[in-house]
Amino acid sequence: MSGIKKSGVEAARKNLSALLEQAYRGEPSLITRHGKVYAAIVPPSYLNKRPGRVDLRALRGTGKGLWGRSVRGAIARMRDEWR
Questions:
Q1: CATH of the structural domain 5-47, one choice from 3.40.50.620, 3.40.50.970, 3.40.1620.10, 3.40.50.2300
Q2: Which pLDDT value is given to residue 28?
Q3: What are phi and psi of 17, to 5 degrees?
Q4: Which of 3, 2, 19 shows the shortest CA–CA distance to 11?
Q5: Phi and psi for 78 in degrees, rounded to 5?
Q6: Percentage helix, strand, coil, to 5, in the chain?
Q7: 11, 54, 61, 69: which could join 7 in a potential S-S bond, CB 3.0 to 4.6 Å?
Q8: What pLDDT score was predicted for residue 2?
Q9: Which is nearest to 2 in space by CA: 48, 37, 33?
Q10: What would the pLDDT profile of 12-31 be if each residue is shown by its tens digit?
Q11: Strand, coil or helix: 51
Q12: Which alpha helices (DSSP H) does 1-83 contain, by range?
């Protein structure tokens, strides 16, 4: 992220059209407030690069033994704690 241009909120507000033009050319910009990144202006092509959603079914079996012998029993014990 070191090569990405950063602008404060006020500077971004004043130069919004220039930031939009940069994004159109493929150059992302970060908008900061008090040194923290608050927003990003990115080209539309960046939106297609997002990772896809993870299918939770792929995690099936990864917690084997985590709940003890019986998942149903573990949940019942946790519910009983709050009664």
A1: 3.40.1620.10
A2: 94
A3: -65, -35
A4: 19
A5: -65, -40
A6: 40, 20, 40
A7: 11
A8: 60
A9: 37
A10: 999 999 999 999 999 999 99
A11: coil
A12: 9-14, 16-24, 44-47, 71-81
Please answer whether residues 81 and 74 qualify as being in contact, where contact means their C-beta atoms are separated by less than 8 angstroms: no
Q: Which two tokens stand for residue 39?
A: 């927003």
The label of the residue with tokens 């949940």 reads 75
Q: What is the b/e burial string over 20-51, where b = at least 16 CB atoms within 10 angstroms of the residue's CB? A: eebbeeeebbbbeeeeeeeeebbeeeeeeeee
In sequence order, the 6+-apart residues with CB closer than 8 A to the CB of 1 are 30
φ and ψ at 29, to 5 degrees? -135, 145
Q: Token pair of 47, please?
A: 């939106």
Give residue-wise pLDDT tens across range 26-72: 999 999 999 999 999 999 888 877 667 777 777 777 677 777 888 88
